[in-house]
Design brief:
heterodimer, A: 133 residues, alpha+beta, 3-stranded antiparallel β-sheet, two-stranded antiparallel ribbon, 4 helices, 5 strands, 14% strand, B: 116 residues, mainly beta, 6-stranded antiparallel barrel, elongated
Chain lengths: 133, 116
């Protein structure tokens, strides 16, 4: 039997400064990854350079990855994660979240690379039916 | 079997994904402590509904008094300090049965013990 090719909804907690944390998806699935891309590219034509929406750069990835956080409002009440709440963050916090997600993504990518390397020697394609020749 | 709670909107989750939205749910508890839930499926993702584990989530909005921490209905403070507390009740789904009844998709689920 082959490996499970479907992304499991696992959550990773990442520590931030000042004792805060964010909960993010361990891995985006294909649909989520495509949404990150399609939301920040304004115009893409084959063989030409892409035009991106600067307002969406960084934001679309955070929106797809972020599940929860420890942030509270001015009166100490927990704030639910939403695109509106993400946009309302101060610039420093936004950057801290973006950097944390980028670092997590790089780590997952490295792990995936290592896994592929270790599997490289075992890849084989076998005939699924006998040849008539 | 006694009706424990009923509500209008709930969700079935697979991890952080919504596998289905449900309406008109009723949660029953029998004398042995076993939980059962019936509802109408409104929107569902066939792939996610086939995954395990699934969790039934019923959101609630409770109004309490911040001075005495009691529910606003039973608070006896002279000047109640009303605060709204949002939360959710959650039960793991042990098994699920889905069937169409006169145009609606009805579901019945056996639930595990409620989780905090």
């Amino acid at each position: 039997m082959g490996r499970n090719r479907f992304v499991q909804p696992d959550i990773v907690r990442v520590s931030l400064s000042d004792g805060d944390f964010i909960d993010i998806k361990k891995e985006l699935n294909a649909g989520e990854q495509r949404r990150v891309f399609s939301r920040f590219v304004k115009d893409a034509r084959s063989g030409e350079s892409w035009s991106v929406d600067p307002e969406q750069v960084g934001l679309t990835k955070i929106v797809e990855y972020l599940i929860g956080w420890s942030f509270t409002d001015a009166s100490g009440h927990p704030v639910e994660v939403s695109e509106g709440a993400i946009k309302a963050l101060d610039v420093e916090s936004f950057k801290e979240i973006k950097d944390a997600i980028d670092a997590h993504e790089r780590q997952i990518e490295e792990e995936r690379g290592e896994r592929k390397k270790s599997q490289a020697g075992t890849v084989s394609s076998e005939a699924i039916s006998a040849s008539v020749a | 079997m006694a009706l424990a709670i009923s509500g209008i909107n709930g969700v079935i989750r697979w991890g952080y994904y919504n596998a289905a939205k449900i309406e008109g749910y009723a949660v029953y508890r029998d004398k042995d402590g076993h939980w059962t839930m019936t509802a109408t499926l409104v929107l569902s993702d066939a792939f996610k509904m086939r995954q395990r584990p699934l969790m039934f989530v019923a959101p609630y909005l409770r109004e309490t008094c911040s001075a005495c921490s009691k529910a606003i209905q039973v608070c006896v403070c002279r000047e109640p300090q009303k605060v709204s507390v949002q939360g959710e009740w959650r039960w793991p789904i042990e098994s699920i049965e889905i069937g169409a009844v006169t145009g609606h998709t009805k579901m019945t689920a056996v639930l595990g013990p409620q989780v905090q």
